[in-house]
Write a structure and sequence with these properties.
The protein is of the alpha+beta class. About 30% of the residues lie in helices and about 30% in strands. The strands form two sheets. Strands 1-6-2-3-4-5 form a six-stranded antiparallel beta sheet, with helices on both faces. Strands 7, 8, 9, 10, 11 and 12 form a six-stranded antiparallel beta sheet that branches. Helix 4 (about 160-165) packs across helix 5. It starts with 10 loop residues before the first helix and ends in a 7-residue tail after the last helix.
Length: about 250
């Protein structure tokens, strides 16, 4: 059986869909297309801005830009560079883009667990009857100095509850956040269905900021699940995979 779930690669398109929903748009950090004017505007409003390929996955080619008292700090993976002016920063980013489309996104200060930043993956899949269900909530914990939390960038996959306990949250708050995440995942599934037919699975990358607010950083239409196989407890992997096999996914 062939993989049978629609894939949309453009982060910009997916962000526009989410912004069309009055409920979901409150969870979206400000996002704009990369241009000199937009770069200037966003860095005048926010201390940290992310530069991301419009089409891309695994945290590859994501640059973190930090506004300093004078100039800017440009970070790719764990490599940092100072740019003395907006012009030099723009030239550096333009060179990195290699003529491809990139987006700018307001930086969210990620909550930390045991001094390591993390974000949350919310996996939603359709049931046999075509209803969106949240089938997994887990965390991606990044290296202390890295830009992305992704598995490909040296991050680790961990259980949601344990990660939030390590971040200092108590059990009742953790349960409340998890309930909100499940609802959010299913609501995003409905938003996507209004735009196009054929989606069977989505993976939301959600940031929990230092004040406990949730932000949707990205929605993946073909989320990777094989890193879950590396966890000691493989129940979550088996649960997601058994549902995924209904629409032709093998791993």
């Amino acid at each position: 059986m062939n993989y049978n779930s629609r894939t949309v690669k453009s982060k910009w398109t997916k962000t526009q869909w989410l912004m069309d929903s009055r409920v979901i748009r409150n969870y979206i950090p400000e996002t704009s297309k990369f241009s000199r004017n937009n770069l200037s505007s966003m860095l005048s409003q926010y201390k940290t801005v992310y530069f991301k390929p419009e089409k891309g996955s695994g945290g590859h080619n994501v640059v973190k830009i930090k506004r300093l008292r004078s100039g800017y700090l440009y970070q790719y993976e764990s490599n940092q560079k100072r740019c003395v002016s907006l012009e030099t920063l723009y030239a550096e980013l333009k060179k990195r883009s290699k003529g491809k489309s990139f987006i700018l996104q307001k930086g969210i200060q990620l909550e930390k667990t045991n001094d390591r930043p993390f974000d949350i993956r919310v996996m939603v899949q359709k049931s046999r009857s075509g209803v969106w269900r949240t089938t997994g909530v887990f965390t991606k914990i990044g290296l202390p100095d890295n830009v992305a939390t992704n598995y490909h960038q040296g991050g680790t996959i961990e259980l949601f509850r344990e990660t939030l306990l390590g971040a200092g949250y108590n059990s009742s708050v953790i349960q409340k956040i998890k309930t909100n995440l499940k609802k959010l995942g299913e609501a995003v599934g409905k938003v996507f269905d209004k735009q196009l037919d054929g989606f069977q699975e989505l993976g939301l990358d959600v940031a929990l900021d230092r004040s406990g607010e949730l932000w949707i950083l990205e929605v993946n239409t073909r989320p990777q699940i094989y890193p879950l196989k590396l966890m000691k407890d493989q129940r979550l992997y088996r649960k997601i995979l058994s549902r995924a096999q209904l629409y032709g996914r093998q791993h």
